[in-house]
Amino acid sequence: MEAAVFISSLVDCCALIFLSVYFIITLSDLECDYINARSCCSKLNKWVVPEMVAQALATVLMLVSMHWFVFLLNLPVASWDAYRYVKVPMGNMGVYDPTEIHNRGQLKSHMKEAMIKLGFHLLCFFIYLYSCDAK
Predict the structure, then answer these.
(1) Are 97 and 42 in contact (CB under 8 A)?
(2) What does the pLDDT look like over 24-76, one tens digit per residue?
(3) Are 35 and 23 in contact, with CB atoms under 8 Å apart?
(4) pTM > 0.90
């Protein structure tokens, strides 16, 4: 049972790593003016909910299997994703809004967040990989 939990979390984590890299590449394309803000934001907003669901799935799997340390490690990221999604102002296109992405340094903060999430998912990947081997 534990091996199945960590293997499914490992697969989930791989998807989140690829998604984080996609966010970084798309945001850097916007930063370099290779794509416009509307196109960038529509591409990214399409993946916000699947990212949130995948992170919640990993968190719930660790809660159900009673791996408290890994659960508590995943909980802040899952909570942050849910908070960002709920706090989208009315009238915005989504978490990433083309009219606001260049204002107030949002592009830099979105890029920083994507880099932090990439590092977090890489850390989780190695934790899950070690836990698969240890069981």
Answers:
(1) no
(2) 999 999 999 899 999 999 999 999 999 999 999 999 999 999 999 999 999 99
(3) no
(4) yes
